[in-house]
Design a protein that fits this description.
The protein has 4 helices and 10 strands, in the order βββββαββαβββαα. Strands 4, 5, 6, 7, 8, 9 and 10 form a 7-stranded mixed beta sheet that branches. It has a 3-stranded antiparallel beta sheet with strand order 1-2-3, with no helix packed on it. By secondary structure, the chain is α+β, with helices and mostly antiparallel strands. Helix 3 crosses helix 4. The radius of gyration is 19 Å and the shape is elongated. The N and C termini lie far apart (about 40 Å). A hairpin with a 4-residue loop joins strand 4 (about 50-55) and strand 5 (about 60-65).
């Protein structure tokens, strides 16, 4: 398939309340050189980073549990999601962001992480690139209880569990967060535990 020629005709701001929602009108040149005009709503919330914290010796990982309104509105009865630690980049580089978020959310102060991939999680509607990392932790790195920042209204529960238990939660359907599933599968495929 050839690269399509795209011409942005108009971008209309629909909302700048929490993040940015635009309606974009664009021309798309098809392979037969005909042009069609399309309109799409695009949500821009910035880019983010996520990390699987793992302890190879104990064969454990750190996950978080928190309320996620969109899941509550779409079939998740209590809205609670079990996930890896994650956050928006704000003005940081991905590595700086995930080190900061790890301490804020989990209470572990880590200094070394490894980026394993970049991914668009919902490319049909959201501009976000998510940078995925892994990082080792141990008890000596625990500097606080974590739980997130009060001014961001975060109410995060920190969960330490065995890797095998977490991985089994994919099959049972208890784990439904894509970034978490991807990172657990990466760990399994690459024999981190």
């Amino acid at each position: 398939m050839n690269e399509p020629k795209i011409t942005i005709q108009k971008t209309e701001l629909l909302s700048d309340n929490w993040y940015i929602l635009n309606k974009v009108t664009f021309d798309y040149q098809k392979p037969d050189n005909s042009v069609i005009t399309q309109k799409r709503e695009v949500y821009d919330r910035g880019n983010g980073a996520a990390i699987l914290l793992y302890n190879k010796t104990n064969k454990t990982i750190i996950l978080t549990r928190q309320f996620r309104l969109p899941t509550y509105l779409n079939g998740n009865n209590n809205g609670m999601m079990v996930e890896v630690c994650a956050g928006l980049l704000d003005q940081d580089e991905p590595e700086q962001c995930i080190i900061r978020e790890t301490e804020e959310e989990t209470g572990y102060r880590i200094s070394k992480v490894k980026k394993i991939m970049e991914t668009y999680m919902s490319p049909g509607a959201i501009t976000e690139i998510l940078y995925l990392f892994i990082g080792e932790y141990d008890a000596s790195m625990k500097v606080s209880e974590g739980g997130g920042l009060d001014h961001e209204q975060e109410n995060i529960e920190v969960i330490e569990m065995s890797f095998d238990q977490a991985y089994a939660m994919i099959e049972t359907g208890e784990l439904k967060d894509a970034k978490t599933i991807m990172l657990l599968q990466y760990a399994k495929i690459n024999g981190l535990m």
